[in-house]
Design a protein that fits this description.
- The complex is a heterodimer of chains A (about 325) and B (about 300).
- Chain A is an all-alpha fold.
- Chain A has one domain.
- Chain A is built from 15 helices and 2 strands.
- Chain B has about 300 residues and is an all-alpha fold.
- Chain B has one domain: ABC transporter involved in vitamin B12 uptake, BtuC.
- Chain B has a two-stranded antiparallel sheet.
- Chain B is globular and about 55 Å long.
- Classes of the chains: A mainly alpha (about 325), B mainly alpha (about 300).
- Chains A and B meet through α1, α6, α12 and α14 of A and α3, α4, α9 and α11 of B.
């Protein structure tokens, strides 16, 4: 959109909020997301190759992280730059519990969700009053500090060498369906949350925090809750990934990982249910394919992020919706 | 004060000078657009490569390559402003909520793009820039320092002073400060706010590239070399007060000294963590920084 020439046309915020708060549209998004997940669940009937199943599992890991970040950034307007860090925290939580204290992996994963969620709660509480660039910088430095701690506490985490974590099961198909199940569960939970009053509160805070507070929304509670829930879901993904890869390194919390998550959400369309989910698969699978072609995957996707943010603010989902509407009218 | 302390203080101050050279541009951008440029480190990286490749690849003397690196950074800054920053202030009254998000996404994306583009086109290998002078170690009383570092520090002081004077007294500098204080008011007074933003981005890109060039003999040019100085600049603009040039100079020197002493007396492994903790504390308890004014809305 050419906001530079037409000041009147720059109400991107208004358009988006109208689109995503109306329940009819979000029901369409939910149905599209479920249909997409069914396709994903059917893929192993055709693809038996361990490598590509692994690629899809990692895509699902990113889909969970992107969805969690979308709840925080897309629906609540809290632009955190630490989603990958919460995955790293979850991964180290279960990894350390399993190796140092002999906790069974399943219990470790539950603990990881709680620990990541609690960290998110505390961080969310601390950064409550910060917005925009201030929030981005604070969460960025939180992310960097956590990564420094993970890679420097060599006695505990073995630093950059990585921590060997016990596996959960050896069958790749088994892992595939664990991730499908978790992704489906979190998708339904996110949809239920957005359909409830809580979803309206979060979006009201995103659109105008002061107005929301005046209308009686408990802004402190809901902002903190969004942080904690998003962090818990990210920690869940990180903990699952730790047992899948059987290795945890500080690289899980790299800024580049956060960059990938942000790319997926922006390309798919922030503040929509189906867009970031589909984009997570699209970006990750395409990037694996581009890696074989010549390794230009990161150049392509970072350029796409800039182009989408500049010209197609509603992402692929917004483009698809626009195309559908035009097709119906004609 | 022992000899070690003098050495640490001098080296900390010199590090601080390089930080200041880097951070002033970021501070100016924040002042004029109220955004944090997450691609600032990549302006630095562009300068480091421009200097190294021009001097080594084309065999141009270092004293020509250094200003060329500045120009190259200014060009990248100008392109960034023209292509990506215009939506931030065209119709800025009705932009509302999405403005901050847009700025973070677009500069973050640009940062990743430049890193990966250089990684693919030039390659992931590190290039060492040619030093300005060959004297490898100079002893000044208790202080041991390389000739290049000493000369680079002198150049940094000169460039910082020139920049500060330009901002303070020049015609364009006054325009920039007017737009920073009140964009609408400045435009009503007949100032071309778009041009002021372009100038700020060119200056910012040029200064960051210049510091990249100056430091390339010490910190080799590689695609992700900008991440480290960028994080230092974020810390500094927060400590010094977002948008305040004198504040960022003082904060740079302070951070240089804190890190230099902290690395020896507190923890070497966590030397990069001190500033990050300071950044969080300042944002939480004193967001206007050391010198910044509390927001004045008109």
């Amino acid at each position: 959109m050419s906001a530079s020439e037409t000041p009147l046309h720059s109400g991107g915020a208004d358009k988006r909020s109208v689109a995503s708060t109306s329940t009819g549209k979000s029901a369409v998004e939910f149905r599209a997301a479920i249909a997409f997940l069914i396709v994903i669940a059917l893929i192993p009937a055709v693809v038996r190759n361990d490598y590509w199943l692994g690629v899809l599992i990692v895509s699902m890991y990113f889909a969970i992280l992107t969805g969690a970040w979308n709840l925080l950034a897309g629906y609540t307007g809290q632009f955190s730059l630490a989603p990958a860090t919460f995955a790293m925290i979850g991964a180290y939580a279960t990894g350390l519990l399993c190796t140092a204290f002999g906790v069974p992996p399943l219990l470790g994963i539950v603990a990881a969700i709680l620990i990541a969620g609690l960290t998110g709660l505390i961080l969310g509480r601390i950064v409550l009053r910060l917005t925009g660039p201030y929030l981005a910088l604070t969460t960025l430095s939180f992310a960097e500090i956590m990564r420094l701690v993970a890679s420097n506490s060599i006695d505990i985490t073995r630093g950059d060498l990585g921590l060997a974590v016990p596996g959960l099961l050896s069958s790749r198909i088994g892992w595939y369906y664990i991730f499908v199940g978790v992704l489906a569960f979190l998708l339904v939970a996110l949809y239920a949350l957005l359909r409830s009053k809580a979803g309206l509160f979060l979006q009201a805070i995103r659109d105008d925090e002061v107005a929301a507070a005046r209308s009686g929304v408990d802004v402190v509670f809901w902002k903190t809750a969004a942080f904690a829930l998003s962090a818990a879901a990210s920690g869940f993904a990180g903990a699952l990934y730790a047992h899948f890869a059987e290795l945890v390194t500080p690289e899980l919390g790299l800024i580049g990982q956060t960059g990938l998550i942000v790319s997926m959400a922006v390309i798919g369309g922030m503040g929509t249910l189906a867009g970031p989910l589909i984009a997570a698969f699209l970006v990750y699978v395409l990037s694996e394919w581009l890696r074989d072609v010549g390794g230009y995957q990161l150049v392509v996707f970072s350029a796409l992020v800039v182009i989408f943010a500049r010209f197609f603010r509603e992402g692929l989902w917004g483009l698809a919706r626009g195309a559908m509407q035009r097709w119906r009218r004609s | 004060m022992g000899a070690i302390s003098v050495d640490l203080a001098v080296n900390g101050l010199i590090t601080g000078l390089f930080y200041a050279l880097m951070a002033i541009g970021l501070s100016l951008i924040f002042g004029i657009l109220r955004i944090v440029n997450f691609a600032h480190g990549e302006f630095y990286m562009v300068g480091a490569y421009a200097y190294t490749l021009i001097a080594l690849g084309l065999g141009v003397p270092v004293w020509v390559a250094l200003p060329l690196a500045f120009l190259f950074g200014a060009l990248v800054g100008w392109i960034t402003e023209r292509t990506l920053m215009r939506p931030l202030y065209a119709g800025y009254t009705s932009w509302g909520l999405m403005r901050d998000e847009y700025a973070v996404i677009v500069t973050f994306g640009l940062s990743l793009f430049l890193i990966n583009l250089v990684d693919k086109v030039i390659g992931p290998y590190a290039y060492r820039g040619p030093p300005l002078v060959d004297a490898s170690r100079i002893v000044l009383g208790p202080v041991l320092i390389s000739g290049h570092r000493l000369l680079a520090a002198g150049i940094a002081i000169a460039v910082i002073l020139i920049t500060a004077a330009l901002i303070k007294w020049s015609f364009w500098g006054k325009q920039i400060r007017a737009v920073s204080q009140n964009r609408l008011g400045a435009s009503l007074a007949g100032i071309d706010t778009a041009r002021a933003s372009s100038i700020v981005f060119m200056l910012s890109g040029g200064l960051a590239a210049f510091s990249g060039a100056l430091l390339s003999p010490v910190i080799n040019a590689s695609p992700d070399v900008g991440a480290f100085p960028a994080i230092k600049s974020y810390i500094i603009v927060v400590l010094g007060g977002m948008g305040s040039v004198p504040g960022s100079i003082v904060a740079s020197l302070a951070l240089g000294i804190i890190e230099s002493f902290g690395a020896v007396y507190l923890s070497y492994q966590y030397r990069d963590g001190f500033g990050l903790i300071l950044l969080m504390l300042f944002l939480l308890f004193r967001p206007q920084g050391l010198f910044g004014e509390k927001g004045r809305e008109v």
